[in-house]
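Example 153.
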Amino acid sequence: MKPVNTRRLLSMIPVITILVPLALHAAEPEDIIKYRQNTMKAIGGHTAAAGAIVQGKVDYKNQLAGHVRALQALTADIPGLFPKDSDFGETKALDEVWSNRAEFEKRAKDAKAKVAAFAKAVQGGNQQAIAASFKDMGEGCKACHKDFRKKDD
Ligand code: HEC
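Predicted structure in complex with heme C:
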């Protein structure tokens, strides 16, 4: 083996170590959009499943706490799902998500608080409080969708 090959190989190491972190950090906008839509779908799924239990349509009370935990985890940082540069393409997020960021973050915070209140009610076990806080949580979702999500066409 010629020594020059080894040298060339060694000279590439800094390039490789620089490229790897970049590749890990710079997620593609379309992947971020898909990720947040899937996360929102999951939030929607847990909300609908919890609702069926709360309204007594199904008898899976032992799973309610699990849905609540998932909702708390997935709604903990909704603005984080909408970084800059994820505002174009196959998204229903309106421009206001970025242009009216303070209000968007406020709605996210309100919704998070409503999820926390629902979680507390579920822990308390009072049926009326659970039903009321579930309804209120739904209003929290709507309050954001109303102004920050394109209507279904
Ligand atoms: C702070 C704003 C905000 C809050 C709070 C919020 N959402 Fe969303 N949601 C959005 C936006 C914006 C979109 C559109 C995302 C996109 O298309 O990129 C969305 C999309 C969705 C979707 C459609 C996902 C898809 O692409 O199929 C569902 C379902 C959903 N949200 C459920 C919920 C539920 C349930 C709650 C309440 C527990 C909630 N959201 C709370 C902003 C919010």
